[in-house]
Structure formats: C-alpha cells, structure tokens
Amino acid sequence: MPKRRDLKRVLILGSGPIVIGQACEFDYSGTQACKALMKEGLEVILVNSNPATIMTDPEIATRVYIEPLTVSSLDMILEKEKPQAIIPTLGGQTALNLALQLDAKGILKKHNVEMLGATPKVIQAAEDRELFRNVLDQVGAKYPKSELVRTYEQGLKASETLGFPLILRPNYTLGGGGGGIAYSPDEYNIMLTQALRESPTSEVLVEESILGWKEFELEVMRDSAGTFVVVCSIENLDPCGVHTGDSITVAPQQTLSDVEYQAMRDEARKIINQVGLETGGANVQFATHPTNGSRVVIEMNPRVSRSSALASKATGFPIAKIAALLAIGYRLDEIQNDITQSTPCCFEPALDYVVTKIPRFAFEKFQGSKDLLSTQMKSVGEVMAIGRTFQESFMKGLLALEFDREGIPETHFQVDQVSYPNSKRIWHVVQAFRHGHSVQDLYNWTQITPWFLEQIFDLVVFEKKFPLEYKKNSKLSLLQAKKKGFSDARIGKLVKKSESQIRKERWSEKIHPSYLQVDTCAAEFESSTPYFYSTYHSYQKLQRTIDNQAVMIIGSGPNRIGQGIEFDYSCVRGVKAFKRFGYRTIMVNSNPETVSTDYDTADDLVFEPLTTESLLEIQKAFQPKSFVAQLGGQTPLNMAHELVDHELQLLGSSLATIDRAEDRGHFTKVCLELGLEVPKAAMASSLDTALKFEERVGYPMILRPSYVLGGRRMEVVESRSELESYFERHGEFITEDKPCLMDQFLISALEVDVDLVRGVDWTLVGGIVEHIEAAGVHSGDSMGVLPPQRLKDETCRQVEQLSIRLAEKLEVIGHLNLQLAIKNDLIYVLEANPRSSRSLPFVAKATEIPLIDLGVAAVIGKTKKELQIDKWDWKKTQTVSVKGVAFPFKKFPEADSILGPEMKSTGETMGRGTTYSEALMKAFISSSYKLPLDGEVFISLREKDKIPMLPLAKNLLQMGFHLSATSGTAQFFTSHGLACETLKKVHEGRPHCADRIRQGHVAFVINTTTGRTAIEASFDIRRACTDLNIPCLTESDTAEAFLLAVIMAKKGQFKTHALGSALQI
Amino acid sequence: MNGFLVLESGEVFSGHWHGGKNRIGEVVFNTSHSGYEEIATDPSYYKQIVVMTAPMQGNYGESNSVWESQQFWIEGFICVQIQDSQSNKSWLKKLVNAEVPVVSDMDTRRLVLSLRSGGTQWGALVSAESEAEAQKIAKSLLSQRFEIKKDWVWEVSRKKSQIQKGDNPKGPKIAVLDFGSKENILREFRTHASELHILPSRSSKAEILAVKADALILTNGPGDPADVEKSTETVKSLIGEIPVMGICMGHQILALAMGGKTYKMKFGHRGSNHPVKDELLNQIYMTSQNHGYAVKDDSLPAWVKVTHRNLNDQTVAGFYSAEKKVLGIQYHPESCPGPHDAKGLFTFFIEQLARNAT
What we know:
The complex is a heterodimer. Chain A is of the alpha/beta class. Chain A has 37 helices and 39 strands. The longest helix of chain A has 23 residues, at about 450-470. By secondary structure, chain B is α/β, with parallel strands linked by helices. Chain B folds into two domains: about 1-145, 3-Layer(bba) Sandwich (Glucose Oxidase, domain 1); about 150-355, Rossmann fold (3-Layer(aba) Sandwich), CATH 3.40.50. Chain B is about 25% helix and about 30% strand. Chain B has ten helices and 19 strands. In chain B, the strands form three sheets. Chain B has a ten-stranded mixed sheet with strand order 10-12-11-13-14-19-18-17-15-16, sandwiched between helices. Chain B has a seven-stranded mixed beta barrel with strand order 1-2-8-6-4-3-9. A two-stranded parallel ribbon of chain B has the order 5-7. The relative contact order of chain B is 0.13. Classes of the chains: A alpha/beta, B alpha/beta. The interface between A and B is large, with 53 and 50 residues.
C-alpha cells in the first residue's frame, strides 16, 4: 500500500523528562519522525513536557505543545487540534502507556482519533505479560517458567513452585522499574511488595532465573504487506541478570552460528506477526543457554526504543523515520535507503565493523547506594564506539566514557568486583587478567561468553609483551597497539613515556587512522552519506571532499548527571545555525541516543570518543578551520587548551576568557575589580588550616574538594563539629594541590540563573530564571521560574546590568551562564560558565528567543545592526514558565531524596501557564508528582521553618487537609491553635511516622532538615515517600510552590498553549 | 608470516598469513554476518577466494553438521580478524589443516571497494617475505588459471548417481541434476519427496527419464553457465516433458535452455540481505545470494514471466511458467547461510508443479 492520502494531521507523543531508562533516544526518534512526516506534507502536532529536547523546537512540527503528558491535557489538545491520528510508538513507555489510557477512557473515540503504528490490542499483547505468554505459546516459542502474580499471597506461592533465585518483572514499567532478582525468601518478600506497587496494573511476572544465559536483542521492522527485516542484532556482553540498558552490548551479534541466528530471526518474525504489529519497529529480546544453546524469549517492545536508537546509529538505518513512514501507509520497498540513495529500505544492513555500547553510571552521586547491577536499569547514559574489530571498538568505547585517558588503567583488583555485576566490573575483569587469572576463572566468576573474555585476555597479553616489542620495532608495535584500540596515553604508560611523546612518535611514523563510512551495506553499494568512524585497520582514503572552512562542533558525550540532553539541544541547534550562515559543519560525538549523531544533522558526522587524541586525528583528516567548545557542556571546554595548542582555531570566547571564568581565583578577582559581591571564601588543605579560616568564612559554609563536577562531596556545614566530621569523611580527597574550598553559605538567599549572549558590539540577556528553592540546592535540582516572581524589579534590573558588565569584563564572545544569589537586596556572584548551559533550552523556550542561534551569530562576528538585537526582549514574555525536575531516587533504594548542593536529577520538565500557579501545577504534574486534593499531610520541620510555615499549615487545614507531625512540629502547631496529630519519630519506636507513610495514609509530606544527624534521622521518612510515590517536599519554598499547584489542581481548570512560531534570527 | 593477495590488476593487499597453500582463484566478497562454514563448503565457491566483509570470523568455532558438502571448495579465506579460539573448536585450524590459505589483518574495506569499482578479478593468495616476492609467486600461479578446464559444474558434480529416501512416502519422486548441490537443497526436497534421485550433471535425457521422476531439480553450482553446454542441451530437451525447478546455476541453465542469455555481473551478489520481490507468492524476501552471473532481462521467451526481481538492482531473480512447468530461482531459498524467508517456494513448486505432473 502506498502512502495514505486521507491522513493530513497527526499527533506525536514525546516521552517527557529524561529519567533512567528513557533518555535522549526518544528526542532522536521523535525528531526524526516529525521531520519525515513534515516532509511528506503532513501537519504534525507534537506534545512533550521536556523543554530540553530538539523536538520541542517550534520549527520541528506544525504545532508544538510543551504540556504534561496526561489524559486531561491530551484531551484538550486533541479537542483544539483535531488530528486524525496519534502515533504512540515514538515516545517510549510513557507515550505507550498514555495512549492506552486515552483509549481506555474513550478519549480517542471521542475525538475520532486513530492510533497509528500500534493499536491498543498490539500494545497489550506485547506488554501484558500473560497475553504475551499466550502469543509465545501460539508460535511455539519457549520462555522461562513463570507465574503472573496479582497479590502478595499469590506471589508467596509462586516462589515455592519456582524456587530461588527468582526474577520479578512488573507489568508496564520502564527500564525494569520495580523489578529485580531475589536470591532468598527474605529478599523476595520485600521486592514483591515493591514490584506489585510499581506495576500500574499491580501485576508482576515472577520468573525462574536464567542468570548466566547469553542475552540477545533483534531490532526488527515490518510493513503492512508483511515484509520483515532485522535491522540489527545486538549481543550483550554481560549475561542475563543485568538489565540490557546496563550491559555492555555489541552489534552485530558475534557468537551465534548462522543456524542459531536464523532460528532466532524466524522466531522474532513469528512473534511480531502473532502480536499483530502491523507496521513499525519493535525489538525482541532472547536468551540462549551458554552450553546447550536452547533459547527463550525474554520480552518484546512494540515501539522504537533505546536499543532501536542504538541500532540506527550502529547501522545507518533510521528506524524511527522509517517507522513513521510505515505508519502513514508506505511499504519498506517504497522507501529509499537514504544512505545508498539507490537501494530500497527493505533490506538488512550488512556491517563491516563492530559496534560496542557501554553504559555510564552515577552511583557515586547517591550516597549509600550499592553499586550492584540487576534487572532494574541504573545507568544514566551510554556511549557507542565503532571499530573494525571488537577490540578496537571496545577500547574506543571505554575512552568515550571520559573517565580515563588510558581507557584500561590499572585498578585495585577485587574478586567481588568481578563476580558481582557492578558499574566498574569491566576494569576489574581486565585487571584480573593482569593478575594472571585465566579465561576459565573469569568465566566461572562472570558467565561472560568466553569469546569476549578471550578478546579482553588478548589485550592484556598484548599489553604485557608491548614494552619489549616496542623496543624491538617501535613503528610496527605502535601500529599494532593502535589497531587494538590502545590510546596514546595507555601506550605511554606502558613504556613510561608521556601521551604527547607517543603521539609525536606515532605522527612521525605517519600512523594515523582512516575514516570509513557507515554505509549500511559493507561497501557493496556506492554511498555518499557523510557518517564516519575511525580505524587503524584500513588505509582507505577519506571518501569526502575537504572543506577547509568547516567548523567542528564538539558534542557532550554520554549523558551524566549534570550534562545531558540540554547540551545536545545546544549542539544541534548550533549546527543548524552554522549551516544557515553558510558554514560546513562537522559534528563529533559519542552518544548514540542523541539527535546530534543523526547522520542528517551536520554536514559530516564523525562518531568518535571525545578525547583530545581523537579530535586531533579528526582535525588532520577533515581539516576544519575552527571548532566550537561552548555548546557541548564541560567536555569540550576541558579540551579547548590542548586543541588550541595544536593550532585549531577556537571560535567564541578565548582561552583567556574561559580561564578567567573557570578559575576561582581569577574569577573572584574579576568580580572584586567590578565591585561585585562574592561569598566569603577560603581554601584549606587540612582541618587545621580550615579551623584557621573558620571565622573568616563563618557558619554555615559550603565545603567541597577542588576540581569536582556537579557538586560531588559538596556539603553545607553548620558547626565546628560538622566541619571536623567533613574532613574525617572526605580527607582523602583533600590535599595540598587539591585543597578544600570553603565558601560562605548564603542561608535563605534567592538564587537565579542568567543566560546571556555577547557579540562584538552587543550583549543580550536571554532571561533570568529564579530558583524556587533557596541557595544550597544545586541549580540543576532546583525548580525555577521565568519571569522571576519574588525578585524585585529593581534587583532584576541590577542583575541584568551586573551580568552585562561581567560579560564585558570577561570578554565573553558567545554564551555566558551566571549563577547569582540575592540576599537582603545584595547580589552575590556565585559562578560563571563561559558556555551554553543546562538552563538555556528552558530559557529559549520560555522567552521564545533563539539564544543558540544568537550565540552562533556572536562567535562568527555578526554585529548588533545585522542582527537587530533590540527586537529581542525576554521581559516581554507573556507566559509564565516553571522548570520542574525529575529524580531517579526510586532506582537507588538506599539513596536519600533530600536536596543539597550535589546534583542528583536526571531530567527536567516545563510547565507553561498564564499564571504562576498554572505553570507550577503543570511542572509538578510533568515531573510525576501526584497533586492530592485531600487527605493527611505529614509535616516535620527544622526550627527555622516553623514560624514561616505557619500560614501554609493553616491554609492546608482550610483546604480540608488534616495535619500530622512529629512531636516538636506538632506541639508548635497546636500551640498556635492548629489541629494536628502527633506521630512518633523513627527513633521513638513503632509505629512511627514512616510506618504511617508506608501504610499509605499520607497524601504528601513536608520534611525540612539541616545538619547531618538530623538528615540521617529523617531518612526513613523520605525513603518511604520515594518508595510509595508520595510527594515529599524537603524545602519550605518547594512546599509553598506545591501548595499553589494543589490549589490550582483543586480548581481543576487549566489551558494548554502551543509554542509560538519558529525561533529564528 | 606475511600473506599477500595479488590481484591480476597488480594491486597488492597484505595481511597476516595463518597457513595453507599458495593458491589462486576469482576474488569475491560476501557480506553475510555469519555462516562462514556453509560458505566455505558450498561447491558454488569452487575456484574462488572469499573475502568476508564481516571483520570477525571463526567466532563460534566449527561444526561439521552445518557443512553444505563433504569438503572445502574455496581457494582462500580473507578477513580482518580470525579467532583462534581456546574454548571452541577452531575454525582457523580446520581451514589450515585442509590447506586452505587464510589471511587476516587485511584491509578488506579497501579491497572490497576495489572489487566493487573494478569488478571481480582473479588473484593469488600467497605467503612471502616481501611484496616483490609475493608478486613473483603470484605471477607464475596466475598464469595457470588459463589451464583450468571449463564446465566447472562437471568438476564439482557427483560422478555417480545416488538415491536418497525422502521423508514423505506420499510425496513425489524427484530427480536432481547435481551441478554442485548444497546439502540443504537436497534436505529441503527430502522433506517433501518420497525419493530423490541425484544424477551427475552430464546425465543424458534418457538417463534422467529412466528415473521416472515427477519433477527435475537443477541445483546451484560454480562458474559460467555458458560453459555448461551438455547439461543445457539435455535440459532443453526436457522442458515441457517434466516440471523443472532451477536454483542459482540451475536457474541460469534453465534460462539458457529456454533460449535465454546470461551475462557476467560486475561483482555479483553474495550475502544474506538481498531483497527480492516475488510476484508469485506476493511477498518480499530477504534472501541468501551467491552468484556472479545473471539472466539477461529481455532474453527470455515470451511464454515465461519474470516473477522475481532483486530490489537492489532490479536484476532477474526468478521466472515462472505454469504452462511449461518451469520455475527458476536465482537466489537460495534453501538459505544456509541466510534467512529462511523464501522457503515457501519449495512447497509451491511441489504443490503446483510436481504433484500435478502425474
């Protein structure tokens, strides 16, 4: 069937904020789909609550809504926009579940909207574990013995029949959420309760263990005529037991014979036909027994996914784009392969390289959480690397993680770090070989398929022999080392030379990588797509004409807490702007989830680790004239010095400017010269020196070691005893060269983010985001509002002026992000980032000013006149926008949800409204807060919050909530005439307040605490809330904002607003 | 030890020599991700040096159970890396023990680009100290190529006929003209047939008819179909008398026997991912392919319809005539290696042509 002529207007659902298990990949797939459908002449309505996405840029779709992904807001949007169809398969589990709800509640029928790509029946057949098992029975596929459990009692029975260990898989959850592996009845009983709660349908599949089996995934597509292709096969290096999102994976599969592989392919085809998936993409996961080869099906997803994004990047086959075209009626044979431009899309890509994906974790951010991997996804980002051999791609992948320039540095070997899957296991595997352990030993500990272990073992053998080989024939041995993926830094370490010495030697021997094309067909057909990877296994000349005026844009690498999709937004938008100004662009990045690594974003895409070494090679091969370091976050900024040293021209702010802004000493000096206030500060390399500065800085103060990202080990200290405790706990990270930074903590100060752009003769403040939480909460974790609601107009004007003066003094060209604190009308400068920021996409969407485009205009020297800068004024913004925050606490059972100076959030949302309360309400809803309309509010307050919170408590009572509190707070409330029930604190014996929360009697919790002891004592309260999805507000300001949102929700009325027209210069 | 591939054009590629004898062959590339054993034992690769574009070979060891014939037919095996596995049976050792030259660490990407742009050519795979030495050895080896006999099909065909019992006692009796058959073609037909009579490629019309079969199968095989004169004549005389299905070489000979023409392709089709549109069963398959020659589009008689096309380049991938009961399939519905998508064609042939024959 060719394209359906009747379809004119479709709605695409996005996936909401970035959370563990759902990241940039859905921005990639949604953006691709929008582009494809718009090109087909359709009108596309896009709904997503995440402002940091490219897909929510107004020009991506006909109409863009940054609104909550809920039934009521969709009901309104459908009413207003009247699309004929909705595509639910591009926005992950969020979109799929929402579409099911819309269907179940009759909303789709009401608006006469058709579901494209997957029908409710298909979604259920694939996602409902019981229905899915019926499908498997019908096609004769095997699956692990299991029982579907709906109650705790059923669950207990199931464990008796199935035996331990057991795997728990809740229905309809994301990234294995709420699931896990139980080895003993005790563990099982706890996990079962949690799993039942996490499943929206209260159903959990309890499954016999297939731990240690080999795990595979097939990314498949099907069209309406039944044509079926496997786009990519993926093999997990980590065997079953580790969530596939947390596994190192390899494409194409490496260790199945053709017979085994084809049988798997046949089964995948039967399954998707039986499930009834008519068109689109899906993935099917399998496990095979390591020795007897028997095969079971683990699950299937009838939608594009994280792995389909990986498969698209790994093969050059754009799954999401094709899925969108199939959904509107095309067949695979009617769509041309973009890459070859001569063959159709009904084919299976042939790869002449190996792709490795490696996850990146953030356990260190969640104090107390155990670094152990299981069936519940924990990683926050991933890298992909392409090499001609497994070794080359694996080693490149490790470098792309940006942990260590050596890739496989020596580490302190521990057996339990190998035998228990954890985020650092792979380095311990390498180290185990260095310590003389055999492939068999490692297999016994890990059940990693021996083929992979042999490959890694071979790297270690090579490493051992290397120094001698290098002495004998340095040229040959260097080439061999490069072919095996060893970085210059690691080679240097092996022969006791510096990285730059090795690089010099290598260059003098003319050892450079070749850049080969990712062409979907192993060179069988001609292809002109400019998608490249480097390898030392080839001498092929670059098949691309060189443009020595090109600009290289360095991406932001793997998502991590503090550096994620916001910077991909900046890069992609930047690429587009450069193109519009007539520059050829070269995009370099290592993150397969992103839009920036789509082959049709930049003129050239080079998929490489973001290391100095690889960028210098790209420079030699592609010969760009200049590079941009201010779009990809901290990663490119950190490399700017070395690249400039190699005569690459840095666009925008100079190195000197970067240093002035980033170096604390320099920066303070600049501020003082301008007469600006900065918090009192000192540096101490020991407790003794710290005590000397105690008085100068004063309590409370913020302590942190130097050179930390995202506020690692950053703590607010209120007294001398806490100061001593800090040095006791973190002393090992504090030395003479890396002293502890002590800063005055501006208690209760109002914090703001300022994003501005400065050109040759102009500076434009893009906006001021007022933080909702007071100073002390990391800016990435605090909610924010634009325009500011509490800041006085006069102060606002001062902030703008001060920012402009600072930008001028620093001689910024391009972006500058400032963090300021306001206390008693005094403005303190906290931090300056000479680059695009995390808050920038939010500001751009809130103010509808194309800040990235202006940043690009600035760095290429456009003048005020050319740009008519005066036409942009953020203060003219009519709507109120609130930034909401998404946290991953649920995934880290031992972690505390209290907010502090260390960033913990993974994603953000945006609520747009005509009033502050409307915007707040939407932001909370989009960040998955339930807004309760009645019930019990449990309150436990630190002393300083009691009086200020009194009106709020009264308000709650008037609204019909009733109050409960721990003794101190309860006494305080009663003495002020408020009815309040007293609950025991956790240490006062049971039943205590946390029990009350866990019993499900509490609608929401306000719990403010300071000081380490108090924080530890109230941990159980917050954890109970996290486990039960009960809103827990840990700052008084957040509580007040939350109340506004609840009041708004009680009114039950809100409107949805489409974004304005295209943001262009 | 250094290994060299010296192409007739003079281009030289170097790599790591693992063993085997110096040999010559037509250098062809295959893009399948898996299936190295099936490929190396497929008689259609007679006199060919195979370049695997998938860089990692030998990963899953070896097992005779998937062999497509009793021996290796390839003249050389080239890839980027070959696993000399400790834990599995070693594919590398198996090849080297059979004196098949194996060279890894070769820049196969550049080699494939060269074959793609310049077309298939002959080459010598040799071990040598230096490139100059390799060229010398190669020169003398390559001069022998013109001494190789034509009709390669006869070189690989069974010389004695053989009877195999089928799995379906009620199924038709099938005669197979062995042009270098892959085991799996026979296996597929055994599941449908009561008996298979496998005959040498140069069997006469009388010998074939003496079998009293319900249908005749022409198998895959190596080389240029135009060189297979005797068999073509025989098939020509049988068209209309007995239902005939030709696969790959069989398809080409069937086309020649019907008066059609074949031609040598620039670099052929070898892989497991070629899309074919089948108008007969109205499906699109991912197919397993291995051919260097093809049937000329407009050369076929009017009574036969081109029913299968390769969607990558629109070349003829199959034809059919219900009236004369002929079915030609250029690709490999029997897979091995490759997808099983086109397997339904065996049933189709048996149901539509072979069963209705008597």
